[in-house]
């Protein structure tokens, strides 16, 4: 995966939450991010009447973004000052490319 300068790491998961690809070469770290992203999505879904299509969560140290379709979820950790509109746009565009028929 090619990352923007504001994104620290990213993971791609299938619809069941299994890790498909990661920007981090450390497989344990990538799996941990995928697990945490899946927990965040499950919590958001539990709080909303419909499945959540995108998520943004911020802390003092950074931000987490996720977008999902029926078949995949793409989540990333970004720097604190990352522009959410740009990060979410990039994630959505990546998902469109991923799911475009060959």
Describe the structure in your own words.
- By secondary structure, the protein is an alpha+beta fold.
- It has one domain (7-99): Beta-Lactamase.
- The chain contains 2 helices and 5 strands, in the order E-E-H-E-E-E-H.
- A 5-stranded antiparallel sheet has the order 2-1-5-4-3, with helices on both faces.
- The longest helix is centred in the middle third of the chain and has 21 residues, at 27-47.
Number of strands: 5
Across the major sheet, the strand order is 2-1-5-4-3
Shape summary:
globular
Q: Tell me the span between the first and last alpha carbons.
A: 19 Å
The Rg value, from CA coordinates, equals 13 Å
Oligomer: single chain
Kindly give the count of domains: 1
Return the string of H and E elements: EEHEEEH
CATH topology-level name: Beta-Lactamase
What share of the residues does DSSP label as strand, in percent? Answer: 25-35%
Offer a concise description of the structure.
By secondary structure, this protein is an alpha+beta fold. It is built from 2 helices and 5 strands, in the order ββαβββα. The two termini are 19 Å apart.
Structure characteristics:
Beta-Lactamase; alpha+beta; globular; five-stranded antiparallel beta sheet; 102 residues; 2 helices
Produce the secondary structure layout:
Blueprint: E1 7-14, E2 19-22, H1 27-47, E3 54-58, E4 63-68, E5 72-78, H2 84-99
Antiparallel strand pairs: 1-2, 1-5, 3-4, 4-5
